[in-house]
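Project channel, design review

CF: Before we commit to the Microbacterium terricola constructs, I'd like one complete example in the thread so the newer folks can see what an input/output pair looks like. Taking GNAT family N-acetyltransferase.
RD: sounds good, go ahead.
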Amino acid sequence: MSTITTGVEFRPLVVPDTVDAADAGDFLAMVEVRNQVYREISGHDDHSMPADELLPHYRPDPDEVRLVWVVVDGGSIVGRVGVDLPTHEGSRSAYWLIELLQSVQGRGIGALAYELVEQASRENGRTVLQSWAEHPAAAGERIAPPTGFGELPLDRAARFYRRHGYSLEQVERNSALDLTGSFETIERLYATAREASAGYRVVQWSPPTPPEFAEGYGWMKSRMNTDAPAAGMEFDEEEWDAARVARHDSKYTEAGRLLLVTAAQHIATGELCAFNELAIGKDRTAASSQEDTLVLKEHRGHRLGMLVKCAGLLAWRDLAPESPRMITYNAEENRPMLDINEAIGFVPVAYEGAWKKELS
Ligand SMILES: CC(C)(COP(=O)(O)OP(=O)(O)OC[C@H]1O[C@@H](n2cnc3c(N)ncnc32)[C@H](O)[C@@H]1OP(=O)(O)O)[C@@H](O)C(=O)NCCC(=O)NCCS
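CF: and here is what came back for GNAT family N-acetyltransferase:
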């Protein structure tokens, strides 16, 4: 059903079979708007993704329902609204975004879009609504989360969240590592980590995940939601069986994205104990991203975090030699992880807010 108010329409997104399909027009325009919104916020294209690489993320998925609307103003697509609903029994969560081109902000479109977000969440029985946004550096009043780590300017997005009843729960740091310089520091840190991690070996693969690693990798993926510092944000525990690992893999393989998983394996038991993921789209000259990294609780204290990160980056030099930067996100209070990234050479480039509201 479409909602038409004051000339603005929220039209449910048609997800085409391929980006060349006859009905792909709205999807292609949605991706253009997404990339432009991120460029307007951050001033660069590191968050940009081509349509064919985003498409796999919008296909029907047994783990999550994705509701998406395009915002249509005067016949053109000027924004998008998304609400993600995890499907497992008893989930109270909805994760959402509203992204509008700068040219249409400040007209009340965001407020209308937000009504749609809350309505869709309520209709699906969701009461914990959460959302993330980058808040670029700016002068003026600042706000801080209850964690005591990090702060953000009280900008339009922050005012928008607050006006709609949200509290800032956590600040996340977006950092970048220059990949064009020397890898000497990384080589040295890798050697030190190897010494501290006797009894473990490094294993690496790209999707499809080798069958012998599917169970261990799935278990570590499922620990991301339970073990990473979440401050006041709430995450459902996820179950990752072999089929879910295969679905995750296909999001990379389907459109030519490259993922490198570097894991630490306990030699005596064969157990996978730590992992790091590095990824890049099919344009290998674009920025790369460091995605999940985790050391299982029972295996902390052996420098396995440093080991898998450095081993991944050293391999990346050969896999994507033309990529100029590696970008990553960490909670501002996640000192152990930030210590590793800072030692490797990551520097902060921007901050995101993690916002939450509980519906009564
Ligand atoms: C944050 C965002 C969604 C807000 O959307 P928006 O349409 O600009 O929001 P609104 O128009 O409802 O409110 C914005 C401003 O316009 C004012 N406004 C609201 N209705 C208005 C109207 N009818 N006429 C004039 N001004 C109006 C509001 O008071 C508000 O003022 P403020 O920015 O000084 O606080 C939008 O700016 C955006 O897409 N930003 C980039 C992406 C992002 O950060 N998204 C965050 C959620 S994921």
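RD: helpful, thanks. The two ends are 26 Å apart (CA to CA).
CF: The first strand starts at residue 3 and ends at 5.
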